[in-house]
Amino acid sequence: MSPIPRRSLLKAAAVAGAAAQFSWALGAKDAEAAPRAGAADADPVTLDWLEDGGLGAAPGSTLGVPWPMGAHREDQTFALTDADGKDVPVQSWPIAYWPDGSLKWTAHAVSSGVGKLTLAAGAPAAPAEKVTVDKRGGTVDVSTGVITAKIGKSGSTIVKSVTRGSTEIARNGRLVLIRQPEIEDEDQGSVRTERFDGVVDGVTVEQSGPVRAVVRIDGKHRRGGRSWLPFSIRLYFYAGADSFRMVHTITYDGKQEPGKASGDFIRGLGVRFTVPMRDESYDRHIRLGGEGSGLLREAVKGITGLRRDPGAAVQAAQYAGRKLPDPSTWDQRVTTRLQYIPEWGDYTLSQLSADGFTVRKRTKKGHGWIGAGGGRRASGFGYVGGVSGGFSFGLRDFWEKHPAQLDVREAHTDEAEVTLWLWSPEAQPMDLRFYHDGMGQDTYPEQLEGLNITYEDYEPGFGTPYGIARTSELMFWANESTPSPEKLAEQVAAVRVLPQLAAPPRQLIKAKVLGPGLYSEPDRSTPAKARIEDHLDFLFTYYKDQVEQRRWYGFWDYGDIMHTYDAVRHQWRYDIGGYAWDNSELSPDIWLWMAYLRSGRADIFRFAESMTRHTGEVDVYHLGQWAGLGTRHGVQHYADSAKQQRIANTTYRRYYYFLTADERVGDLMHANVDSDETFLALDPLRKIRTEPYTPDRHALSIGFGTDWSGLVSAWLTEWERKGPKWEKAKARVLSTMETIAAQPNGFVQGSGLYDLDTGRFAVASAPVVGVSHLSAVFGLNELCAELIHLVDMPKFNEAYFDYCRYFNATKAEQAARYGSNFGTLLLFQGHSRLDAYAAVQTGDAALAKRAWAKFYGSDGYTESSPWKTEPLSGPATLVAGSEATWVATNDTALYGLAAIENLALLGDKMP
């Protein structure tokens, strides 16, 4: 264990002492600051799989594990064992550090192991077959010990070949883009398309074994002299695996203008491989995943169901995917007529909506298609190959992110071609044009009038998709022969739900990470606690059910939820301005992740995971003048003109990154480190300022709530990760904390003038009261809890505790403290968690009492709320289901967070 610096010990002792003095009053044992690390802090951690089945057919799993401050020095190694005490090979690396240099989060990759696993300090076992990476030649060669992939360093071939032993299973892996330059809104005109190929600009080996290797490929799609639609691909390989995973990201940089038919409309977006076909056509097999673990199981040349029977054993072997006996042993009435049996070379499975897929096949190009079945929701899995080897492939969230498609072409020839379409070319072109013509809202006053009727903050030219992104996940297997049905079912399961190891909630709580003291394990020990737990369960279940009932699916939409309900139409307000897609408004992301951290529930993790993938990519700009800013809630995820830091907030990504070590989410967080520069590009208060203001590099107006909480989250994360700009980020964290605390009214001052070069706020000469109900509801409390735990800055603590103390105070109390009251406020229930936090930190029993009073008896949900749904059916609604007209997403996020945090902080002081 590393020695802890004296300053850290003094801070821990001081805060622990204060908490100890308070414990007699509130008994808030979970709210104490991190004490000096003891032997128990480095205890082994039991890891388990989120879902049953363990690793299954997936290549491997990576997770993050937190440690209490001081538990492990930065060069600590780790060992992993299974339930029988046998060594499990593991690759470990740090992903965050405490200020004293000790490990805060470590990532661990495994490619084997079943059931629960135990992680402890020690020497890691080496895998029998290590991942190796060789980048000396013209390709980057990655070997898992079972398969070898050659990755191109340039050109249009991403994966040049995938071999298993001496057999080439697949080659020429590439990216395909189909552009349609014009959309016809009616039934006239002709459709013209252009094909672009992904071209590699750079390749980076990010990890090289021994258990896990990661290769990143960046480039653009190119045709002739034009390059556009940047991509970033990561390929993941694990020791001993016969498969690899692809994480595929595109960033839209095309042009689509409202009212114009011409533009950069994506007609198809896919990943394509060539698969060598060596076997006789009757020993070649096609598999396409249907519903659940269902499969279409066919041969290129089928010998079942014929007028003449080749023999039961022959038919059974073909259906099972086994090599057939020599045709000379069959009934010769079949053998002599094999040339007359059609060979089916082309197959397509198309999922154009969340509610239906179709399968069709044909013998070859130029001949008619034959329907081969269909169903509701396909798994997104396929296989093509034969008894001497074949290629399995799958696209995660296949039907959820429709329109998607799987193609197999020319399987009857020496080279089959498979394409996984992330956007099906059979669907309508990807139309991202803004949805209305502005309706005369040309001036700020007109736009504010529009805001007052539809809650949409419109501004010409702002509703653009330029710079938004989307990430997809794919899986590939190089099989030595056609897999058995049981093995195929395992591969299907791995495509649908990527196996994930996880540390238990008690380790997260013990380590005091991601909001120290703000969450605790569910507790139903009293009727009052049980009721709140029931309410939390109700709200999560309701939203999960609404995703299904309202079909909140689609390539750009999946992962988000709606903002407000229309009780008259029995429908969420999907078409009403700022009441439509939620875009992280008031932090439902944090509510969901806090719900997972305390419970370890797989269903909550998966819901939060899909939201993180969506909100971090689609609701945020990654290119262009607004890169680093997100878009306020609206009918389209990019429609609203409020482009703000609060939606790009790194806080919403931290949970998933630290729990999984996901590199793509890590990219998104790092990209925000310099997002303070965005305040030069766009003034978020431009429409409502009453005083002249021009953005000045040395005097940028930045709010201490929604703005700063997003900025400081990015800086803190970069500092913890020791990213490329961690020293600058650390300085920004400390300088802004110091200069907020130095303001005449601290946080209540509301905003300050920020210097981009020094990273400091100018200290105002006069006190101002500038409090908004929104300031603390985009992660401020959760971030301040982390900062106060990490940084020894008493004046900052006092400034934040004062803000917490007075937001929910009476107007008379506010005026007595600050000279004037805070004006008209709301969201008191959500702010009760600030009361609770400050009560524990300061030892204020009256504040603790007020926390529960505001939770139970202010705004938001109450104990007298219905806490149930009502059934819905036709003709009142499009799809039968249920509704809770009293539920609104703002209230849900705030109730969820207040309930979770108040229970953790003041659970033993409930009225």
Give structural notes:
The chain is of the alpha+beta class and 911 residues long. Helix content is 27%, strand content 26%. It has 20 helices and 37 strands. The strands form seven sheets. It has a 20-stranded antiparallel beta sheet that branches. Helix 19 runs antiparallel to helix 20. The chain starts with 5 loop residues before the first helix and ends in a 5-residue tail after the last helix. The model is unreliable at 1-36 (pLDDT under 50).
Tell me the distance between the termini: 43 Å
Total helical elements: 20
Tell the overall outline: globular
Q: Major beta sheet, specifics?
A: 20 strands, antiparallel
State the helicity in percent bands: 25-40%
Average pLDDT for all residues: 94
Could you say which structural class the secondary elements and strand pairing correspond to?
Answer: alpha+beta
Number of strands: 37
Rounded radius of gyration (Å) = 29 Å
Strand residues, percent? 25-35%
Helix-strand layout with pairing:
Elements: H1 6-26, E1 45-49, E2 61-66, E3 78-81, E4 87-88, E5 91-97, E6 103-110, E7 117-121, E8 132-134, E9 139-143, E10 147-152, E11 159-164, E12 167-182, E13 194-208, E14 212-223, E15 226-238, E16 243-251, E17 262-276, E18 284-289, E19 295-299, H2 312-320, H3 332-335, E20 346-353, E21 356-362, E22 370-375, E23 381-386, E24 389-395, E25 404-409, E26 415-423, H4 444-454, E27 469-479, H5 485-496, E28 501-502, H6 505-511, H7 527-549, E29 565-566, E30 571-572, H8 588-599, H9 602-617, E31 630-631, E32 643-644, H10 651-660, H11 663-671, H12 678-681, E33 700-703, H13 706-721, H14 726-741, E34 751-755, E35 760-761, H15 780-790, H16 794-807, H17 811-818, H18 828-842, H19 845-857, E36 870-872, E37 881-883, H20 889-906
Antiparallel strand pairs: 1-7, 1-28, 2-6, 3-4, 3-7, 5-6, 8-9, 9-10, 10-11, 11-12, 12-13, 12-17, 13-14, 14-15, 15-16, 16-27, 17-26, 18-19, 18-23, 20-21, 20-25, 21-22, 23-24, 24-27, 25-26, 29-30, 31-32, 33-34, 34-35, 36-37
Helix pairs in contact: 6-8, 7-20, 8-9, 8-20, 10-11, 13-14, 13-15, 14-16, 16-18, 18-19, 18-20, 19-20
